[in-house]
Write a structure and sequence with these properties.
It is a single chain. By secondary structure, the protein is an alpha+beta fold. The chain has one domain (3-151). It has helices at 3-6, 15-23, 34-44, 70-77, 91-100, 110-118; strands spanning 52-60, 78-81, 84-87, 89-90, 104-109, 122-124, 132-134, 145-151. Strand 6 and strand 7 (132-134) form a beta hairpin. It is globular. The N and C termini lie far apart (36 Å).
Length: 152
């Protein structure tokens, strides 16, 4: 049994949660944001016919997000920001949940989303920043902030 299930009671997990947890790298903490998922599900069920919902956050979605060693990942997945505890949003789980509810759901890096909207290449103005500036000489760097769009 993988490490992420040792601290959880498998009987408390639904089929989707179990499937996702078993597909994750061994020894990595993987939060299942049930409060986030119930809030997002509630809000998405109240979208107008042609409406959409955009979510911007840091978190994880792609396989390469797990390139950090497990101990480094586990120390950063839940952390204290000022006096508030924060947990990365599990876009993989949320997008799978939305799709299981027959919603259209797309996840991409925030930078990719902003570049599409503005029609130009951008780079963060400083490490970990949500501010972007035009890329000079075609230089580009990644950030770990995601955008998820949900449509009915």
């Amino acid at each position: 049994m993988s490490a992420q299930l040792k601290s959880a009671n498998a009987d408390d997990l639904d089929e989707l949660e179990l499937k996702l947890l078993y597909s994750m790298p061994q020894n990595y903490f993987i939060p299942i944001n049930r409060q986030a998922s119930s809030t997002i599900t509630f809000l998405s069920n109240h979208l107008n016919e042609s409406g959409c919902m955009d979510i911007f956050d840091y978190g994880f979605y792609y396989k390469q997000d797990f390139d950090a060693p497990a101990d480094m990942w586990n120390k950063s997945i839940v952390r204290q920001y000022n006096t508030q505890w924060t947990v990365d949003l599990n876009f993989l789980y949320l997008s799978a949940l939305m799709r299981s509810l027959d919603k259209i759901c797309e996840v991409e890096l925030q930078k990719e989303y902003v570049q599409k909207i503005l029609g130009k290449k951008l780079v963060p103005t400083q490490e970990g920043s949500l501010d972007y500036a035009p890329a000079e000489k075609g230089l580009e760097e990644d950030d770990f902030f995601y955008h998820m769009r949900i449509q009915d």
